[in-house]
Amino acid sequence: MRDKIKILAGAAIFLAVALFPLWYVRTTGKASIVPEPRLVNAGKECVNAKEYMREYHMTMLNEWRDEVVREGRRSPIVIAGVEYQKSLSDACMKCHANKSDFCDVCHNYLGVSPTCWDCHNSPKEPKHEIR
Amino acid sequence: MKYDKNYELSRREFIRKAALLGLSVGGSKTLMEVVFGDDILAASTDENPATVRWAMVVDMTKCSRREDCSDCMAACHRTHNVPAISNRRHEIKWIWREPFVNAFPELKEGRLRKDLYGAGFIVLCNHCDNPPCVRVCPTRATWRRQDGIVMMDMHRCIGCRYCMAACPYGSRSFNWMDPRKILDEKAINQDYPTRTKGVVEKCDFCAERIDRGMLPVCVEACKEKALVFGNLSDAGSPVSGLLAGRFAIRRKPELGTRPEVYYIV
Predict the structure, then answer these.
(1) What 8-state DSSP symbol labels residue B5?
(2) Looking at CA atoms only, how far is residue B1 from chain A in angstroms?
(3) CA trace torsion A101, A104, A109, A114 (10° rounding)
(4) Across the interface, do A118 and B151 touch by the CB < 8 Å criterion?
(5) Is residue A39 one of the residues assigned to a domain?
(6) In this structure, what are the phi and psi dihedrals at residue A111, rounded to the nearest 5 degrees?
(7) Distance between CA B240 and CA B233 in Å, rounded?
(8) Do A67 and A112 belong together in one domain?
(9) Is residue A28 included in any domain, yes or no?
(10) Is the same domain home to A79 and A24?
(11) In the sheet that B227-231 helps form, which strands lie side by side, from edge to edge?
(12) A121–B193: do the CB atoms touch at under 8 Å?
């Protein structure tokens, strides 16, 4: 235990470096880069609250998928008098038509690559540089 | 380390106990039933007749049979984004033309009416009442709906192709490559998904249209009205009416799959 001071100092430095990002975000209240998904049809009502959609849209889409494909329950969802099909391409992407600026921004940030669009169509977008 | 003598099993005792356990499980139920439950073996629908049973009648006396007529096939493949691949090992088909002797190999023996031999019969998934593809699917990506449609869930398909081996009609196709690379980008029907590499696909009687009260696209596209679609459980439906008055055959009924696509010859 002769190196006690060295070890403790080393541990303290390590902790300071490792915890710096957490402390920084906490005190300044902002992360250096946050994804900013952009809405094209802002102002319209979504099928669920923003907070719910943010966290659980994938769960909801999976439920829709099971209801439509496996149970054949295709009746649309009515929100404020407007009918929405239980469909990614037919409902979600009618409003959120800008996949690269809406969906991809968060998905890329989080490093997730959903396979939805391997088969499902997304609306055509004008080509722009990759961010 | 010391261990409790009481828990020690002699070789003989171990075998005796294992045999007893095996007997108690295997004696009452088969392994299949233990693993999958009863429903997988109870594929038959005889006990519980459905009120809706979709079926198709192909009236080959009306079908133009001309090689250049492909209205039904073109409409289907366009609507469902089925790519046209000329390599027969990779081709994808939902509805296509098959020479009579290939569609009905058991009728090849002996002599039949002469015009049948040259005829290209319109074939598609038979939506069997006892579908062998459903029985072998390990993920239940394909299953039989209450109304008789043998559905595909592309989300679940792992591409093992057991169903293709099981189907005696060759109704299923495997995506050996990404169909989007073959499809004309401008011609893709935006209202219907494409498939991805590594899944099996086939005709699903246009389930998404039927659920909305529409007819399958092939039936709508046929100018000769040779394709008739309807509810077999309803005595007043067009298919029931046709089958009550005309003689119709089915493909390979001797296999016990109970196909529900009928051919008037």
Answers:
(1) G
(2) 35
(3) 170
(4) no
(5) no
(6) 70, 30
(7) 8
(8) yes
(9) yes
(10) no
(11) B227-231, B54-59, B261-264, B248-250
(12) yes
My answer on whether A27 and A58 are in the same domain is no
So what's the ipTM on this one? 0.76
Question: Are A95 and A64 contained in the same domain?
Answer: yes
Contact between residue B265 and residue B60 where contact means Cβ atoms under 8 Å apart? yes
* Closest B-chain CA to A117: B193
Assess contact for B94 and B227: CB atoms under 8 A.
Answer: no
Residue A21's domain comprises: 1-32
SS3 A42: coil
Q: Are residues A108 and A58 in the same domain?
A: yes
Q: Global pTM?
A: 0.78
DSSP characters for B193-213? ----TT-EE---TTHHHHTTT
Residues of chain B with CATH 3.30.70.20: 54-264
Mean pLDDT by 10 residues, chain B (265 residues): 68 90 74 57 50 95 88 96 94 95 89 84 96 96 95 96 97 96 91 95 95 95 95 95 95 95 95
* Count of domains forming chain A: 2
Q: B72 with B95: CB under 8 angstroms? A: yes
Please state which CATH number belongs to domain B54-264.
3.30.70.20
For residues B236 and B232, what is the distance between their CA atoms, to the nearest angstrom? 9
Does residue A8 share a domain with residue A54?
Answer: no
Contact at CB, B155 and A65, closer than 8 angstroms = yes
CA distance B241 to chain A (A): 27
Structural contact between residues B131 and B150, judged by C-beta atoms closer than 8 angstroms: yes
B184 touches chain A (CB under 8 A): no
